[in-house]
Amino acid sequence: MKKIIASILAALFALTFGLSALAEDVPTIGINQYGEHGSLDNCREGFLLGLADAGLVEGEDFTIDYQNAGFDNAIAAQIAQNFSATNVALMVAIATPSATACFAAAEDKNIPVVFTAITDPVEAGVDSGNITGTSDKLPVEAQLELIRQLQPDAETIGIIYTTSEPNSVSAIAEYQEKCGDYGFTVEVVGVTSQSEVTQAADTLIARGVDCFSNLTDNNVVGVLSSILEKTDTAGIPVYGSEIEQVKLGCVASAGIDYIQLGRQTGLMAAKILTGEATAEEMPYETISEYSIYVNSEAIANLGITVPDEVAEVAIEASEVE
Fold first, then answer.
1. What phi and psi, each to the nearest 5 degrees, are found at residue 32?
2. Residue 210 to residue 307: CA distance in whole angstroms
3. How far apart are CA 215 and CA 239, in angstroms?
4. 224-234 and 197-206 are packed helices; what angle lies between their axes, rounded to 10 degrees?
Protein backbone atom coordinates (compact mmCIF):
# COMPACT_ATOMS: atom_id res chain seq x y z
CA MET A 1 0.00 0.00 0.00
CA LYS A 2 2.83 2.36 0.91
CA LYS A 3 4.48 1.61 -2.43
CA ILE A 4 1.26 2.46 -4.29
CA ILE A 5 0.88 5.76 -2.40
CA ALA A 6 4.53 6.59 -3.03
CA SER A 7 4.11 5.85 -6.73
CA ILE A 8 1.02 8.06 -6.92
CA LEU A 9 2.81 10.91 -5.13
CA ALA A 10 5.81 10.52 -7.41
CA ALA A 11 3.54 10.63 -10.45
CA LEU A 12 1.73 13.71 -9.16
CA PHE A 13 5.07 15.40 -8.43
CA ALA A 14 6.34 14.58 -11.91
CA LEU A 15 3.14 15.90 -13.48
CA THR A 16 3.22 19.08 -11.41
CA PHE A 17 6.90 19.64 -12.13
CA GLY A 18 6.32 18.97 -15.82
CA LEU A 19 3.46 21.46 -16.01
CA SER A 20 5.52 24.06 -14.15
CA ALA A 21 8.45 23.57 -16.46
CA LEU A 22 6.13 23.79 -19.45
CA ALA A 23 4.64 27.02 -18.12
CA GLU A 24 8.13 28.43 -17.62
CA ASP A 25 8.97 27.61 -21.25
CA VAL A 26 6.11 29.75 -22.54
CA PRO A 27 7.50 33.25 -23.17
CA THR A 28 5.74 36.18 -21.57
CA ILE A 29 4.91 39.30 -23.54
CA GLY A 30 4.63 42.35 -21.33
CA ILE A 31 2.24 44.93 -22.80
CA ASN A 32 2.72 48.45 -21.46
CA GLN A 33 -0.24 50.57 -22.65
CA TYR A 34 0.00 54.24 -21.79
CA GLY A 35 -3.74 54.70 -21.21
CA GLU A 36 -7.18 53.59 -22.25
CA HIS A 37 -8.90 55.18 -25.22
CA GLY A 38 -10.24 53.81 -28.48
CA SER A 39 -7.17 54.02 -30.71
CA LEU A 40 -4.77 52.54 -28.15
CA ASP A 41 -7.24 49.78 -27.31
CA ASN A 42 -7.51 49.05 -31.03
CA CYS A 43 -3.72 48.80 -31.24
CA ARG A 44 -3.74 46.15 -28.51
CA GLU A 45 -6.59 44.24 -30.14
CA GLY A 46 -4.84 44.38 -33.51
CA PHE A 47 -1.56 43.25 -31.93
CA LEU A 48 -3.18 40.06 -30.63
CA LEU A 49 -4.76 39.49 -34.04
CA GLY A 50 -1.33 39.84 -35.63
CA LEU A 51 0.11 37.16 -33.35
CA ALA A 52 -2.80 34.88 -34.30
CA ASP A 53 -2.28 35.66 -38.00
CA ALA A 54 1.30 34.46 -37.57
CA GLY A 55 0.02 31.16 -36.18
CA LEU A 56 0.91 31.76 -32.54
CA VAL A 57 -1.50 30.57 -29.85
CA GLU A 58 -1.87 32.25 -26.48
CA GLY A 59 -1.09 29.85 -23.64
CA GLU A 60 0.99 27.62 -25.90
CA ASP A 61 3.37 29.99 -27.68
CA PHE A 62 3.11 33.01 -25.38
CA THR A 63 1.35 34.48 -22.38
CA ILE A 64 0.31 38.11 -21.96
CA ASP A 65 1.00 40.38 -19.00
CA TYR A 66 -1.08 43.47 -19.79
CA GLN A 67 -0.53 46.63 -17.74
CA ASN A 68 -2.11 50.07 -18.12
CA ALA A 69 -0.32 53.26 -17.05
CA GLY A 70 -3.42 55.45 -16.85
CA PHE A 71 -1.71 58.29 -18.77
CA ASP A 72 0.94 58.57 -16.04
CA ASN A 73 4.58 58.63 -17.17
CA ALA A 74 5.85 57.51 -13.77
CA ILE A 75 3.56 54.48 -13.78
CA ALA A 76 4.59 53.66 -17.37
CA ALA A 77 8.21 53.66 -16.19
CA GLN A 78 7.36 51.48 -13.18
CA ILE A 79 5.56 48.96 -15.39
CA ALA A 80 8.57 48.78 -17.69
CA GLN A 81 10.94 48.25 -14.76
CA ASN A 82 8.72 45.45 -13.43
CA PHE A 83 8.77 43.77 -16.82
CA SER A 84 12.55 43.98 -16.81
CA ALA A 85 12.75 42.56 -13.26
CA THR A 86 10.62 39.56 -14.25
CA ASN A 87 12.62 39.01 -17.46
CA VAL A 88 9.74 39.03 -19.91
CA ALA A 89 10.65 37.71 -23.34
CA LEU A 90 9.37 40.80 -25.13
CA MET A 91 8.08 44.22 -24.16
CA VAL A 92 5.29 45.75 -26.23
CA ALA A 93 4.79 49.48 -25.81
CA ILE A 94 1.60 51.19 -26.90
CA ALA A 95 2.23 54.96 -27.29
CA THR A 96 5.41 56.99 -26.95
CA PRO A 97 5.78 57.38 -23.14
CA SER A 98 5.45 53.63 -22.73
CA ALA A 99 7.95 53.03 -25.53
CA THR A 100 10.63 55.29 -24.08
CA ALA A 101 10.08 53.74 -20.65
CA CYS A 102 10.35 50.18 -21.98
CA PHE A 103 13.40 50.99 -24.08
CA ALA A 104 15.23 52.39 -21.05
CA ALA A 105 14.22 49.51 -18.75
CA ALA A 106 15.01 46.78 -21.29
CA GLU A 107 18.44 48.01 -22.32
CA ASP A 108 20.52 46.44 -19.52
CA LYS A 109 18.97 43.01 -20.05
CA ASN A 110 18.80 43.28 -23.85
CA ILE A 111 15.07 42.54 -23.86
CA PRO A 112 13.56 43.33 -27.28
CA VAL A 113 10.92 46.05 -27.45
CA VAL A 114 8.18 46.44 -30.07
CA PHE A 115 6.24 49.70 -30.11
CA THR A 116 3.11 50.95 -31.80
CA ALA A 117 1.20 54.24 -32.06
CA ILE A 118 4.29 56.46 -32.24
CA THR A 119 4.05 59.29 -34.76
CA ASP A 120 7.77 60.09 -34.94
CA PRO A 121 10.11 57.36 -33.60
CA VAL A 122 13.17 59.41 -34.55
CA GLU A 123 12.04 62.43 -32.52
CA ALA A 124 11.13 60.07 -29.65
CA GLY A 125 14.61 58.48 -29.74
CA VAL A 126 13.39 54.91 -30.29
CA ASP A 127 14.47 54.40 -33.89
CA SER A 128 17.59 52.28 -33.30
CA GLY A 129 18.83 49.52 -31.01
CA ASN A 130 16.95 46.46 -29.79
CA ILE A 131 13.62 48.06 -30.63
CA THR A 132 11.25 48.23 -33.59
CA GLY A 133 7.57 48.74 -34.29
CA THR A 134 5.02 50.73 -36.22
CA SER A 135 4.48 54.45 -36.66
CA ASP A 136 1.08 56.13 -36.92
CA LYS A 137 2.34 59.24 -38.71
CA LEU A 138 -0.58 61.58 -39.29
CA PRO A 139 -1.69 62.32 -42.87
CA VAL A 140 -1.53 66.06 -42.15
CA GLU A 141 -2.01 67.25 -45.73
CA ALA A 142 -5.04 65.00 -46.20
CA GLN A 143 -6.52 66.39 -42.96
CA LEU A 144 -5.94 69.98 -44.08
CA GLU A 145 -7.57 69.25 -47.43
CA LEU A 146 -10.55 67.62 -45.69
CA ILE A 147 -11.04 70.64 -43.40
CA ARG A 148 -10.88 72.98 -46.40
CA GLN A 149 -13.49 70.91 -48.25
CA LEU A 150 -15.90 70.85 -45.31
CA GLN A 151 -15.27 74.45 -44.19
CA PRO A 152 -14.39 76.46 -47.31
CA ASP A 153 -14.44 79.77 -45.41
CA ALA A 154 -12.43 78.67 -42.37
CA GLU A 155 -9.24 80.57 -41.58
CA THR A 156 -7.91 79.31 -38.25
CA ILE A 157 -7.35 75.79 -36.91
CA GLY A 158 -6.89 75.29 -33.17
CA ILE A 159 -4.70 72.48 -31.84
CA ILE A 160 -4.00 71.39 -28.26
CA TYR A 161 -0.82 69.41 -27.65
CA THR A 162 1.37 68.11 -24.85
CA THR A 163 4.65 70.00 -24.80
CA SER A 164 6.65 67.00 -23.55
CA GLU A 165 5.22 64.65 -26.22
CA PRO A 166 7.76 64.35 -29.09
CA ASN A 167 5.10 63.11 -31.53
CA SER A 168 2.90 66.11 -30.89
CA VAL A 169 5.78 68.57 -31.21
CA SER A 170 6.67 66.99 -34.56
CA ALA A 171 3.05 67.08 -35.79
CA ILE A 172 2.62 70.72 -34.76
CA ALA A 173 5.70 71.62 -36.80
CA GLU A 174 4.24 69.86 -39.84
CA TYR A 175 0.87 71.61 -39.44
CA GLN A 176 2.60 74.99 -39.20
CA GLU A 177 4.72 74.23 -42.25
CA LYS A 178 1.85 73.10 -44.47
CA CYS A 179 -1.25 74.98 -43.27
CA GLY A 180 -0.51 78.02 -45.45
CA ASP A 181 -0.76 75.88 -48.59
CA TYR A 182 -4.43 75.36 -47.74
CA GLY A 183 -5.16 78.93 -46.64
CA PHE A 184 -5.06 78.33 -42.88
CA THR A 185 -3.22 79.63 -39.87
CA VAL A 186 -2.78 77.44 -36.80
CA GLU A 187 -3.41 78.50 -33.20
CA VAL A 188 -1.74 76.14 -30.72
CA VAL A 189 -1.98 75.78 -26.95
CA GLY A 190 0.51 73.56 -25.15
CA VAL A 191 -0.27 71.65 -21.96
CA THR A 192 1.91 69.75 -19.54
CA SER A 193 -0.75 67.36 -18.19
CA GLN A 194 -4.23 66.07 -18.91
CA SER A 195 -5.72 68.30 -16.22
CA GLU A 196 -4.90 71.37 -18.33
CA VAL A 197 -6.58 70.21 -21.54
CA THR A 198 -10.12 71.50 -21.03
CA GLN A 199 -8.80 74.91 -20.02
CA ALA A 200 -6.74 74.91 -23.21
CA ALA A 201 -9.94 74.20 -25.15
CA ASP A 202 -11.54 77.25 -23.50
CA THR A 203 -8.55 79.34 -24.58
CA LEU A 204 -8.86 78.31 -28.22
CA ILE A 205 -12.62 78.90 -28.21
CA ALA A 206 -12.02 82.38 -26.78
CA ARG A 207 -9.50 83.08 -29.55
CA GLY A 208 -12.25 82.42 -32.10
CA VAL A 209 -10.75 79.50 -34.00
CA ASP A 210 -12.93 78.11 -36.78
CA CYS A 211 -12.30 74.49 -35.86
CA PHE A 212 -10.10 72.16 -33.83
CA SER A 213 -7.89 69.44 -35.27
CA ASN A 214 -6.74 66.65 -32.97
CA LEU A 215 -3.39 64.96 -32.99
CA THR A 216 -2.83 61.47 -31.59
CA ASP A 217 -1.94 63.18 -28.32
CA ASN A 218 -2.98 60.86 -25.51
CA ASN A 219 -3.56 63.57 -22.91
CA VAL A 220 -5.96 65.31 -25.30
CA VAL A 221 -7.71 62.23 -26.66
CA GLY A 222 -8.16 60.90 -23.14
CA VAL A 223 -10.57 63.76 -22.31
CA LEU A 224 -12.06 64.22 -25.78
CA SER A 225 -15.64 63.96 -24.54
CA SER A 226 -15.11 66.98 -22.28
CA ILE A 227 -13.62 68.96 -25.17
CA LEU A 228 -16.56 68.10 -27.41
CA GLU A 229 -19.04 69.33 -24.82
CA LYS A 230 -17.41 72.75 -24.98
CA THR A 231 -16.93 72.91 -28.75
CA ASP A 232 -20.45 71.67 -29.51
CA THR A 233 -21.85 74.42 -27.29
CA ALA A 234 -19.69 76.96 -29.12
CA GLY A 235 -20.64 75.56 -32.53
CA ILE A 236 -17.04 74.73 -33.43
CA PRO A 237 -16.27 71.53 -35.39
CA VAL A 238 -13.55 69.19 -34.13
CA TYR A 239 -11.67 66.97 -36.58
CA GLY A 240 -10.28 63.72 -35.18
CA SER A 241 -7.09 61.93 -36.07
CA GLU A 242 -8.69 58.46 -36.36
CA ILE A 243 -12.03 56.69 -36.44
CA GLU A 244 -12.63 56.25 -32.70
CA GLN A 245 -12.51 60.02 -32.20
CA VAL A 246 -15.08 60.44 -34.97
CA LYS A 247 -17.31 57.87 -33.31
CA LEU A 248 -17.14 59.94 -30.12
CA GLY A 249 -18.40 63.06 -31.87
CA CYS A 250 -15.69 64.63 -34.04
CA VAL A 251 -17.12 65.62 -37.41
CA ALA A 252 -14.58 63.86 -39.61
CA SER A 253 -11.03 62.58 -39.92
CA ALA A 254 -8.40 61.61 -42.43
CA GLY A 255 -7.05 58.78 -40.34
CA ILE A 256 -5.41 55.38 -40.34
CA ASP A 257 -6.87 52.09 -39.07
CA TYR A 258 -5.41 51.35 -35.64
CA ILE A 259 -6.52 47.72 -35.71
CA GLN A 260 -4.34 47.25 -38.78
CA LEU A 261 -1.53 49.22 -37.17
CA GLY A 262 -1.58 46.87 -34.18
CA ARG A 263 -1.90 43.85 -36.44
CA GLN A 264 1.30 44.76 -38.28
CA THR A 265 2.99 45.21 -34.91
CA GLY A 266 1.87 41.72 -33.89
CA LEU A 267 3.34 40.22 -37.04
CA MET A 268 6.67 41.88 -36.28
CA ALA A 269 6.59 40.63 -32.68
CA ALA A 270 5.88 37.09 -33.90
CA LYS A 271 9.09 37.13 -35.94
CA ILE A 272 11.04 38.01 -32.80
CA LEU A 273 9.36 35.32 -30.69
CA THR A 274 9.94 32.60 -33.29
CA GLY A 275 13.54 33.61 -33.93
CA GLU A 276 12.88 34.57 -37.53
CA ALA A 277 14.33 38.05 -36.95
CA THR A 278 15.57 40.32 -34.19
CA ALA A 279 14.22 43.75 -33.35
CA GLU A 280 17.52 45.28 -34.44
CA GLU A 281 17.19 43.67 -37.87
CA MET A 282 13.72 45.11 -38.52
CA PRO A 283 13.43 48.84 -39.24
CA TYR A 284 10.28 50.44 -37.86
CA GLU A 285 7.38 50.61 -40.33
CA THR A 286 5.13 53.56 -41.08
CA ILE A 287 1.50 52.89 -41.91
CA SER A 288 0.59 55.61 -44.41
CA GLU A 289 -2.72 54.46 -45.91
CA TYR A 290 -5.67 56.41 -44.58
CA SER A 291 -9.43 56.66 -44.98
CA ILE A 292 -11.91 59.51 -44.65
CA TYR A 293 -14.30 58.95 -41.76
CA VAL A 294 -17.34 61.10 -41.03
CA ASN A 295 -19.91 61.43 -38.28
CA SER A 296 -23.07 62.44 -40.13
CA GLU A 297 -24.95 63.35 -36.96
CA ALA A 298 -22.19 65.70 -35.74
CA ILE A 299 -21.90 67.21 -39.22
CA ALA A 300 -25.65 67.87 -39.39
CA ASN A 301 -25.74 69.36 -35.88
CA LEU A 302 -23.07 71.88 -36.86
CA GLY A 303 -24.70 72.74 -40.18
CA ILE A 304 -21.81 71.56 -42.35
CA THR A 305 -22.46 70.68 -45.97
CA VAL A 306 -20.49 67.69 -47.24
CA PRO A 307 -19.38 68.19 -50.87
CA ASP A 308 -19.85 65.37 -53.33
CA GLU A 309 -16.14 64.64 -53.63
CA VAL A 310 -15.98 63.91 -49.89
CA ALA A 311 -19.30 62.05 -49.74
CA GLU A 312 -18.14 59.68 -52.48
CA VAL A 313 -15.17 58.40 -50.49
CA ALA A 314 -16.26 58.94 -46.88
CA ILE A 315 -16.96 56.08 -44.49
CA GLU A 316 -19.64 56.57 -41.83
CA ALA A 317 -17.75 55.97 -38.58
CA SER A 318 -20.76 54.63 -36.68
CA GLU A 319 -21.09 51.78 -39.18
CA VAL A 320 -17.56 50.49 -38.60
CA GLU A 321 -17.19 47.93 -35.82
1. -110, 100
2. 18
3. 9
4. 20
